[in-house]
Amino acid sequence: MHILVINPNTTVGMTEKIEAAANRAAASGTQITAVTSASGPVSIEGYYDEALSVPGLLKVIRDRADFDAVVIACFDDTGLDAARCVTDKPVIGIGEAAYSMAGMLANKFSVVTTLARSVPALEHNLMKYGLDRRCARVRSSEVAVLDLEDDSSGAYEKIAAEIARAIADDKAEAIVLGCAGMTDLASKLSQQFDRPVLDGVACAVSLAEAMARLQLKTSRHGGYAPPPQHKLEVQS
Amino acid sequence: MHILVINPNTTVGMTEKIEAAANRAAASGTQITAVTSASGPVSIEGYYDEALSVPGLLKVIRDRADFDAVVIACFDDTGLDAARCVTDKPVIGIGEAAYSMAGMLANKFSVVTTLARSVPALEHNLMKYGLDRRCARVRSSEVAVLDLEDDSSGAYEKIAAEIARAIADDKAEAIVLGCAGMTDLASKLSQQFDRPVLDGVACAVSLAEAMARLQLKTSRHGGYAPPPQHKLEVQS
Amino acid sequence: MHILVINPNTTVGMTEKIEAAANRAAASGTQITAVTSASGPVSIEGYYDEALSVPGLLKVIRDRADFDAVVIACFDDTGLDAARCVTDKPVIGIGEAAYSMAGMLANKFSVVTTLARSVPALEHNLMKYGLDRRCARVRSSEVAVLDLEDDSSGAYEKIAAEIARAIADDKAEAIVLGCAGMTDLASKLSQQFDRPVLDGVACAVSLAEAMARLQLKTSRHGGYAPPPQHKLEVQS
Amino acid sequence: MHILVINPNTTVGMTEKIEAAANRAAASGTQITAVTSASGPVSIEGYYDEALSVPGLLKVIRDRADFDAVVIACFDDTGLDAARCVTDKPVIGIGEAAYSMAGMLANKFSVVTTLARSVPALEHNLMKYGLDRRCARVRSSEVAVLDLEDDSSGAYEKIAAEIARAIADDKAEAIVLGCAGMTDLASKLSQQFDRPVLDGVACAVSLAEAMARLQLKTSRHGGYAPPPQHKLEVQS
Amino acid sequence: MHILVINPNTTVGMTEKIEAAANRAAASGTQITAVTSASGPVSIEGYYDEALSVPGLLKVIRDRADFDAVVIACFDDTGLDAARCVTDKPVIGIGEAAYSMAGMLANKFSVVTTLARSVPALEHNLMKYGLDRRCARVRSSEVAVLDLEDDSSGAYEKIAAEIARAIADDKAEAIVLGCAGMTDLASKLSQQFDRPVLDGVACAVSLAEAMARLQLKTSRHGGYAPPPQHKLEVQS
Amino acid sequence: MHILVINPNTTVGMTEKIEAAANRAAASGTQITAVTSASGPVSIEGYYDEALSVPGLLKVIRDRADFDAVVIACFDDTGLDAARCVTDKPVIGIGEAAYSMAGMLANKFSVVTTLARSVPALEHNLMKYGLDRRCARVRSSEVAVLDLEDDSSGAYEKIAAEIARAIADDKAEAIVLGCAGMTDLASKLSQQFDRPVLDGVACAVSLAEAMARLQLKTSRHGGYAPPPQHKLEVQS
Description:
Six copies of one chain form a homohexamer.
Chain A lengths: L1 E6 L4 H14 L5 E6 L10 H17 L5 E4 L7 H6 L5 E3 H9 L6 E5 L5 H11 L5 E6 L14 H16 L3 E5 L7 H8 L3 E3 H14 L15 H4 L4
Parallel strand pairs in A: 1-2, 1-3, 3-4, 5-6, 5-7, 7-8
């Protein structure tokens, strides 16, 4: 089993953290290949970054054939629909994976993400997946993505404070961490708050393994039909 | 890893078919224990059967402690919310597992279930999970659950005919089979129709393994809070 | 006219309170028969209790034929869909009755129920009935069901405080009391807060009379089709 | 008990038919006063007619004080919100009453109304009440309102044909008749199609009695707050 | 280009303010005719006023033929559907125009209107237009419509305070002013709060010009089909 | 007034057709600059093409400052949210413009687009804008985008046939043409079918003029907040 985990931003340190999380989550025998996108922004915070990171992400998938499933390791599920057009292997976004699992562990969850500018894209995804019905609120901790790489930034405390508010005000029964860069915080936060705190990287890797083991394929009809060959050769 | 798979009806032959499907889906090293409920109807077709099968199902969970996750192997996700109150291990319904995975492989799917009387309960679940947004239509094949156990019933042909209609009329990009008893038909139907045809038993077992490996737990706060001990001892 | 009012928990004192409320609500000439379920939990607070109380409730309906309509006197509308499969007489839940009437008296209402653990099941029902569009919020007063039977529990004050918050914060134009055990408080609270405060027992009895007088019947097609005889004879 | 039933169009023959239906539905001891609006169109088919009929309807309510509840006997629930501002007695529309009761007898119902031009207003009401979730489809029989007063118009046959389509295509478990002028057809159609066929006049009268007996009042806060006296004196 | 702008209440001073705003918004070469309704309430605050103002508004449209588009200058979009039945020219409500444009400038907006009694009608419109998905909250400033005509009423400050709350609590990225009488405040508030503050009169006039220039027509089929001539001649 | 109209695909002939349509729609005095994207696919049919066209589209906007509003002339509203992050001028998608105007001319419209693969992205946009409530159905004519540039392709007839089905089956009161390449067909189709047939290019240009004249700006807070300078300089 080989899972391709793509960090669609260009920050290698973040890919390393994601790779470590993916390896912790994977079953024995699963090979994780974590790839940093060759082009795009250093972090993905909102619609603009998201748009610029998609071509690099699609190129990673097109250039490789040796995987059983793909994980897109950005919490806004960057380029998810487009990626499903270029492979018949399962493609899982870390946002959708975390929301889906949270909805199976709790009646209601809240999301704690980085900056306010990232909130609408997440709300939009939740609506598309139907999981806005289970999500009480998407909250921003006002921790920038790259501050998560900096131990002195006070990121943990800010995120914990926002989780405390989600529990008190939203009656959140579970919490979803809204950034790939928070992947190393989930376990400690889960203990601190005595309820599920989900990290999308782990959820998506495990779900991708599950779907690959079942030999499930992305549909080749309708919206995910493969583009004609001449279009696949175009680079943006 | 030990997954408890509960058939909430009392037909042992159906449990055996479910067990075989669960073992096919499971990772090596996973132990599947398939249990037939000790009380309840011989098949679950609609609200009444569903209601009568829940106490027996809950008793199976309460009586055992040696599992890492539970799968409820009836497509209407019988007693799912109640079951989540009696264990902190993940509890996955085969309906919700199949819908969730279908929504990650296709923009739009249709469900093909057994009898018309079963349709409203499934529609209701889809609304609750938010996946009515991705489900084009829930269709009945007018094959009774126990006819699925009878090779001469023409069940395969009736189900295939309904799938053909779902593709033509609903533009379904994927199909979800709406009964645990259809678990052995998924692979052949998937090939025949050249698109994902999902069986909930396989989806749920694999998802349960994934969530158990991640050590995710059902929330103990809010709607799934454990009942007080004196209530757990009551039998209906 | 004969209305069968079923208390699906096993607390006789609560049945008596419900019976008194039903008699106050009924038209002259209506006979109320209030029945305590023979099996199940002492109170219904959340999904688990709800599930265990359904078989006893269904047995009450199956064992009697001499009624014109049935009222299920638990605010989470326990077993409502299943009950509609076993009789062609109207079956009304006290939750749905109160929500429906509140939606005809006010643009927006809030619900004040007992414990936080009961909230998700009510939210789920509201979504199913479509009345989440009219319900501003489901609030818990943190008064346990059986504390409502105890005059020294301070229940009235806690409920009144929660209503005050619903008016201030939710702009609730009406209030629905979210437990059969609150039936005797509605009139006083309605006066105190100068707006409709609805008790589901009264609403449901009156609605059941209305539907019975019109000789309306539960549909025998689709989701409420009667189960075959051999299934009706099964006990869970 | 005194129920004021208002026909908001100016066709006296239709008021007489409505009055007869109301009397058939009413409990013994209930006095029905059926009033024809003094101004407005001869029939209400769509938004324009609806708008012009409201001032006359409001005048009927303002001019009378001797009632316990009001029924608005036009299926598009003409002026319902405005009417609730001018009295604290319950005001029930025949559309909302029929939809609500249908939703308690069936998982899914279809509406059969008069002309295509009337359909959007009904769909809009269903969305507002949340009952679009239970309504499979609003269908027009292309029978004009006043043709319902003409025995030779073939109205019954056209309506029956549309009901047959609703059962076959929409899987409707119950039917709601979408015009006050169809009130005399419900019983025969219900027998013919062996499932509930609801007439809004009967439903609303019976529901109004129920709410009046419970002494429920329209909320005086928020959207239904009474207008100041100087505004009540204005005539359009 | 000739735009007919109708103030559906009878306060001439308000028409004058609306006319000035319409002229500021209009392209050069556009003629604005602002008309005060000849009948109806002095201000429109909620359902009752709205209902009484519609016949006068429809009469203005029926009596004139020399326009290219109509603007209904009351924020609850009084009589909008009915008005579309009596002309094939575009008819635009100031509420729908402002909501639509706000949804193109911001992910999420809040509405600040006059009195609490007006809120439900606006919420209802938002749901009908689908823009409840983009509207965070409808807030009342508790400034009566006619107080907006009185410079000493402190209206500006109250509205500004409510906008500040919408930004802090709702995370509103834009604000819609919920009354035609606030038309002269938009520009100053927009500067004060550094984000779009939309006035419906300007939005609707500009949108009406746009649609008229494109020679778009209201559909004559379905819900906006013109009533038969004998009905157009009826006055309420 | 200067409107920048961007064709996000690289087919110059299509830009020319769009430019002509934009000029027909524009007010006198409006300058239209139509720009072909320098990179991306030759046509946009579905998610993959859409993703690859966004960076080129964003570059056009970043490279120019001399416009009052932007129109994105691809019916799937390619990169709309990202584009709003890079300018404070209004940015209008031709899809959203056409849907919004259709919703003001008709209760219900259907969309007729090119290929089945494009349908899900449009359905997704409609849900995001809330206009799925007004859209009866998104239909594909199975005319590829570039076949619209070929007079011998029979495109008109195929589109007309699909419109006929939309009217018969969906009861569509108006039609939205779902591709920028259909811009020259709207007028003839509108006459043929005697109801509004909307072209998004015209709608968006006119709406962009309207919003620019009102000096409305895209919000700089929340989801459309401008990215930091160092990110704006990144090219994908």
